[in-house]
Amino acid sequence: DGSGLLAGAVVTGLGRGELTARIESVRDAAPGLPRLVLVQALAKEGRDEAAVETATELGVDEIVPWQAGRSVVIWRGERGEKSLRKWRNVASAAAKQSRRATLPAVPAVLATSALAARVGECVAGGGTAYVLYESATLPLAAADVAAASEVLLIVGPEGGIAPEELAVLETAGAAVVRLGDTVLRSGSAGPAALAVVLAATRWRA
Asked: Which class does domain 31-204 fall in?
């Protein structure tokens, strides 16, 4: 039902434009641990929406749009509201396709100052926050994520994260990491990072 309830049913009837079914089992799906949050910088050519779709299929719990300083795309006014609705619709469709019991939260777009506050809350609550940065020395695969209550992954825009933004996020408590030796597009870096974290946590269960 999008809120964690799973039902098993048997189709009992099929007609034009309608389907009837008999519910045979109902259960609550246990939330996955750690809680996974993807902070995705706004990107052009639908790359951010592609990240939303794949991240949802992978099981992310929250996708936060970030108005980074170097984002070419800018969400303002009616356009911003329309874009946010589109992200939410993409997440909803991907959740249905992947047969998820829960829909990921997609809150309003954050500026860098608000994102830094969100990082601080994550770290203070026993979570860990990571900024994906191509010149970082620490690989995400080497980070200790197993004991975290929440893992927050931050992906920058096409032009990269500005040095001053990186400094703000580090001061808030985020660690700077890289994925590998190649540079990924903004739309593929987030799902790749999620897969690394999932391989070290949920997928081991």
From this structure: alpha beta
